[in-house]
Design brief:
InterPro entries (chain A): 2Fe-2S-bd_N, BFD-like_2Fe2S-bd_dom_sf, FAD/NAD-bd_sf, GcvT/YgfZ/DmdA, GcvT/YgfZ_C, GcvT_C, GCVT_N, Sarcosine_oxidase_asu
CATH architecture of the largest domain in chain A: 3-Layer(bba) Sandwich
Radius of gyration of chain B: 15 Å
Bound molecules: zinc ion
CATH class of the largest domain in chain A: Alpha Beta
InterPro entries (chain B): SoxD (IPR006279), SoxD_sf (IPR038561)
Mean pLDDT of chain B: 92
Structural class of chain A: alpha+beta
Shape of chain A: elongated
Distance between the termini of chain A: 81 Å
Number of helices of chain A: 25
Organism (chain B): Sphingobium cyanobacteriorum
Helix content of chain B: under 10%
CATH class of chain B: Alpha Beta
Number of domains of chain B: 1
Largest interface: A-B, 24 and 27 residues
CATH topology of chain B: Folate-binding fold
Order of helices and strands of chain B: EEEHEEE
Protein name (chain B): Sarcosine oxidase subunit delta
Largest sheet of chain A: 7 strands, mixed
CATH superfamily of chain B: Folate-binding superfamily
Pfam families (chain B): SoxD
Number of helices of chain B: 1
Distance between the termini of chain B: 24 Å
Number of domains of chain A: 7
Largest sheet of chain B: 4 strands, antiparallel
Oligomer: heterodimer
Number of strands of chain A: 50
Number of strands of chain B: 6
């Protein structure tokens, strides 16, 4: 059914006038499967309230029906999933989701639905679900028996098991002054800083600037609030170095003034599907100075049944009335311990909502009492609300006066106010501590520990005039702190207001219903009492035991009440009780926003070899090896990859193959001390190498573990070319630098990684020399002039080249290094030269077959993070006279133990099939456990059977012994053999 | 996320650097003259102070140079940046460490 063709439903709770909404732009939306309409400018919350929808979710633990408590980031109850299918985003606060046409939302914590919820049975059995229930109830007999039920019944939200189609962007910014919060204080601070010429970034989580001015009108500098906001916005827009980010929440405060922001760019899936349209931007801002103007959050009062749909924060009611033009109820009661909530009573009455009573726990201030009388609102002071009634929505509240007399007042709306508390999450994340302000009954920031100023409500300065002055002064101090000259401009002035008062009221006893402290985590007054009785003294323990203040909520509405209750139970002061740690993020951040665009093909850069196009033209199958796209094999028509690998390997033994080895690490080491340096970093000796010759070497770490291998060539007395594995190219270059810069600082050596500068094409096979000669070279290449393990400079096919006779295949090989941009030309020349000699392109897999036949080890495949040179047959390094990295570790008894895992060859005894790589094996006469494993295994086309390498305990002394291979197919017999299965004497290399 | 001042490049974000851990560790030698205990200490023993910590950092995504940093582990204040060859600057521990 097409949502957009449905007739508009009426919005029974929409006031006839008022609000920052566009009544000419009705928007259709669906919540929990039912269709409604709201207006542009609504949030999902205000639109639902306008439609009279009261039960909007179920609570986390007891699955009690819940409605809205607040109107902004503090909302703990109404978490929704917005969107459908892959576009669904869970755990959004309905108060922070702007309405758009076609929005589809559902509550996160109901099963099967809001109206009937199976989990509500938890409410009946709630005595089993009190504080610490996870730890106590599910200990016996086994947590796993309960886990399935718990996981289904609990938890917030559900993520679709589909790829996330949203586009996320990552932004970085620097500024002089970062102002967090676009309320009156934030605007005043940003304006003062901008006028002084500073680079200013002003961020506001709401879609509009103004903060509370959007629901509490005031006169500032002779202007009404809307006009003042507009004039400030105009001025900031014109300031050349100032930027405003709306819909942007500051979510994290890290070291050295790094602040993380989450900008919500677009919600509507219809627009999100447009290519390039971001859903969120995750900003990382490094700010010279931060001005925290995050305002304050109203505290609920803690009394029986304070969680029924219809019990809301008093200040939130003003927001719904004034900003959204919604009457949140028909008949209201206000319950307060401070002056601010009186404003709500007046606001509701003026909007035409019947206010049945205002209940003040204190003696009411006379001037406010007079104003109530003027509007005909009944006042019950020195009284409290101790209980409420109404399962799916508030029906009545129970009044108790100072003498203990009780009575029920019918109402469908209760506005409560326990006072306001600074939104100090970011301050705490920055490392600052809060301290208790007795007079205002709030926790406010102590001294800042980073380059930060706190102003306005966030600093406990709740009245508008002082907040504006404080923010202005904060901007001046911030500029001075950075050595900038503040402009001589006056602070904005608000009309004077009366001094507000408060008397703390942390909890009200005597109600039959549960009294909630943390609505999101379903933690009650009784739970805190129980935790106290069970000797939980630290607030951090209280938090973990009861789950108070955890998860997305981060104690926004509950934190201070919980501390105060804890303090009163323990008889400690609130300061001595301390606060729990507020954590990143202040408000939930989609994981996708953290990863940004780094996913799929953009997860990391794709590295292609210089000869990539040549391989592609020859039918290469590309796979990633060590971050490089390399040919695994070259498929001929109708060929399987396995057949191609076998064919390529066989052709290298028979004739000649051409392999690109450009990713091989190449590091030039030069200087008078180059030879001495390489003796220190290789386990074997390099200083005795003659100019023009090459030597294979192993590098160890200080643990004596092999970290890389490769061939080093001596280009001159003071000049070496160090070859590393492809995967080790960057790592080994950094390793050598670290030793030179940090340990052997006196050595006169420089190193230069040149891996990407040189491309490498390797001719390998009995015809290699003939192909090289045909391609044309000025280097004498006969065996006497150019023996195995030597290096020559010259030209190949008219391309300047450095040629090395080294071999990873056991065949005669020429590694031809040329400038990377000449690889293409050389590749064509060599293929053409070898055409009638049977040359084939060879991929990585064939290369691995050839080296396994020869028993050449592959670092990281045949070795792991424990393998030392002795384990691979290099005991001779112990005889090296001079010191080298890792030498001392090789002298430890454990490094020389005879039963270490040692590299050996392995031959299957039950036929030609090759053994599975990774299989464990067992020595003869051993009943259980593993005596080693198969590290490399291939089918050799030349030998017509499998060949394998293995790491076996004490393997070197067990040559010829039988072993049993334990594999999925069952047990297979094999025996330990020499490493090289093919040409063990190496005579083919010396042709 | 720290902000470090590379002695060669100037202030940069921590993401450009790599921390090499505790600095000023003396490598014992020659190998044959080193006891198991002192070699083990060189390999594995690291201080974990609450307060000043001298550590070496590498400007991996910049100039590629190593340098020393004196950092307060409780406040993350960078107290000094100095060359690999220089000794730890003499600095009084701040009050916050007490
Ligand atoms: Zn640098």
């Amino acid at each position: 059914m097409n949502l957009r063709s449905q007739p508009l439903r009426s919005q029974p709770h929409r006031l006839p006038t008022g609000g920052l909404i566009d009544r000419d732009r009705p928007l259709r939306f669906t919540f929990a499967g039912r269709r409604y309409t709201g207006y542009a400018g609504d949030t999902l919350a205000s639109a639902l309230l306008a439609n009279g929808v009261r039960v909007l979710g179920r609570s986390f633990k007891y699955h009690r029906p819940r409605g809205l408590l607040g109107a902004g980031a503090e909302e703990p109850n109404v978490l929704v999933t917005v969107g459908e299918g892959a576009w669904a985003v869970p755990n959004l606060r309905a108060t922070e989701v702007p309405l758009y046409d076609g929005l589809v939302a559902a509550p996160v914590n109901c099963w099967p639905g809001v109206g009937f919820d199976i989990g509500a049975i938890n409410n009946v059995f709630s005595r089993f679900l009190s504080a610490g229930f996870y730890y106590k109830t599910f200990m016996w007999p086994d947590w796993h028996l309960f886990e399935g039920f718990i996981r289904k019944a609990a938890g917030l939200g559900k993520v679709e098991n589909l790829p996330d189609p949203h586009r996320y962007e990552t932004c970085f910014a620097h500024c002089d002054v970062l102002v967090i919060g676009g309320g009156p204080a934030g605007i005043a601070a940003a304006r003062a800083a901008a006028r002084s010429g500073a680079r200013v970034l002003l961020v506001e989580q709401d879609a509009v600037l103004g903060g509370r001015l959007n629901h509490d009108d005031a006169m500032i500098d002779g202007l009404g609030a809307p006009a003042w906001i507009r004039s400030a916005e105009r001025e900031l827009a014109q300031a050349p170095e100032t930027r405003i980010l709306r819909n942007t929440a500051a979510v994290g405060y890290f070291d050295h003034n790094l602040v993380a922001l989450l900008e919500r760019v677009e919600w509507d899936p219809a627009r999100l599907a447009t290519p390039g349209q971001a859903a969120c931007r995750f900003w990382q801002v490094r700010a010279g100075r931060v001005i925290l103007a995050t305002g304050a959050i109203e505290r609920p009062l803690v009394f029986g049944g304070n969680d029924r749909p219809g019990v809301m924060l008093a200040s939130a009611l003003r927001q719904y009335v004034n900003r959204y033009g919604v009457a949140p109820g028909r008949r209201a009661v206000i319950f307060t311990n401070n002056d601010d909530a009186y404003t709500t009573a007046f606001c509701l009455a003026d909007a035409g909502v019947e206010v049945a009573a205002l209940v003040d726990a204190r003696k009411a201030p006379e001037d406010l009492a007079a104003q109530l009388r003027g509007r005909g609102i009944a006042l019950h002071d020195m009284s409290v609300i101790c209980d409420t009634r109404g399962y799916k929505g508030l029906k009545a509240v129970r009044l108790r006066d100072a003498s203990g007399r009780m009575g029920w007042i019918d109402c469908d709306l209760l506005g409560m106010s326990g006072g306001a508390n600074p939104t100090a999450h970011l301050f705490c994340q920055s490392g600052g501590r809060l301290r208790y302000d007795e007079e205002q009954a709030l926790l406010r920031p102590g001294p800042a520990v980073q380059a930060m100023e706190v102003a306005g409500g966030a600093n406990g300065t709740l009245a508008l005039g002082p907040a504006l002055e404080e923010a202005h002064a904060a901007a001046m101090r911030a500029l001075e702190g950075m050595g900038q000259m503040p402009a001589a401009i006056p602070a904005p002035r608000a009309q004077a207001s009366r001094t507000a008062t408060i008397t703390p009221l942390w909890s009200v006893a005597g109600g039959k219903s549960k009294a909630f402290v943390d609505f999101q985590n379903d933690v009650t007054l009784a739970d805190i009492g129980q935790a106290h009785r069970e000797n939980f003294v630290s607030v951090e323990h209280l938090k973990r035991y009861t789950t108070l203040g955890m998860a997305p909520d981060q104690g926004k509405t509950s934190g201070v009440n919980a501390l105060a209750i804890m303090a009163s139970l323990s008889g400690q002061s609130i300061d001595a009780t301390g606060t729990t740690t507020y954590r990143f993020p202040f408000t939930p951040v989609p994981l996708g926003a953290l990863r940004g665009s780094a996913t799929g093909p953009l997860f990391r850069p794709v590295r292609r070899m210089p000869g990539h196009a040549c391989h592609a033209a020859l039918g290469a199958v590309f796979e990633e090896y060590g971050g490089w796209q390399r040919p695994s094999c070259y498929l001929r028509p109708g060929e399987t990859p396995h057949a191609a690998e076998q064919r390529e390997a066989a052709q290298v033994r028979r004739a000649v193959g051409l392999f690109e080895g450009s990713p091989l690490g190449k590091i030039e080491v030069k200087g008078p001390d180059a030879a001495r340096f390489l003796d220190l970093v290789y386990a074997n000796t390099l200083s005795t190498l003659k100019v023009g010759r090459c030597r294979y070497g192993l590098m160890l770490n200080e643990q004596g573990v092999i970290i890389d291998d490769g061939v080093a060539a001596r280009l001159g007395e003071d000049h070496f070319l160090v070859g590393t594995t492809s995967a080790g190219a960057d790592r080994i270059a950094a390793w050598l630098e670290e030793w030179l810069q940090c340990e052997w600082v006196d050595l006169d050596v420089v190193i230069a990684p040149v891996t990407a500068q040189w491309g490498v094409l390797t001719l390998s096979g009995p015809q290699a020399r003939a192909v090289l000669a045909r391609a044309g070279t000025d280097i004498p290449i006969d065996a006497a002039a150019f023996p195995h393990m030597s290096v020559r400079d010259g030209y190949v096919a008219d391309i300047p080249a450095r040629v090395m006779r080294v071999s990873f295949t056991g065949e005669m090989s020429f590694e031809i290094n040329v400038p990377a941009d000449r690889v293409d030309a050389l590749y064509q020349a060599l293929m053409a030269a070898g055409a009638d000699m049977g040359i084939v392109p060879v991929g990585v897999e064939a290369w691995m077959i050839l080296r396994t036949e020869k028993g050449y080890l592959h670092i990281g495949v045949d070795t792991d993070g424990t393998t030392n040179p002795l384990d691979v047959g290099w005991a001779r390094v112990l005889g090296k006279k001079v010191d080298f990295i890792g030498k001392r570790s090789l002298l430890r008894p454990a490094d020389q133990a005879p039963d270490r895992l040692q590299l050996v060859g392995l031959e299957a005894m039950d036929g030609p099939d090759h053994l599975p790589v990774g299989s464990h094996l067992r020595l003869a006469g051993r009943g259980d456990g593993s005596d080693g494993y198969v590290s490399s295994s291939v089918f050799s086309p030349t030998l017509g059977r499998g060949v394998a390498l293995a790491m076996i305990h004490g393997g070197h002394k067990r040559l010829g012994e039988a072993v049993t291979i334990l594999c999925a197919a069952g047990e297979r017999p094999a025996r330990i053999v020499e490493l090289a299965s093919y040409d063990p004497s190496g005579e083919r290399l010396n042709d | 996320m720290l902000r470090l001042s590379c002695p060669f490049c100037g202030p940069r974000d921590e993401r450009e650097f790599h921390c090499g851990g505790q600095s000023h560790i003396q490598r014992p030698g020659p190998a044959e003259a080193v006891s198991d205990a002192s070699w083990g200490s060189y390999l594995f023993d690291r201080i974990n102070p609450r307060g000043h910590h001298a550590e070496r950092w590498h400007h991996s995504f910049g100039c590629g140079r190593w340098f020393n940093v004196l950092r307060d582990t409780t406040t993350h204040h960078i107290l000094a940046v100095y060359a690999m060859t220089e000794p730890v600057p003499d600095m009084v521990q701040s009050d916050s460490v007490a």
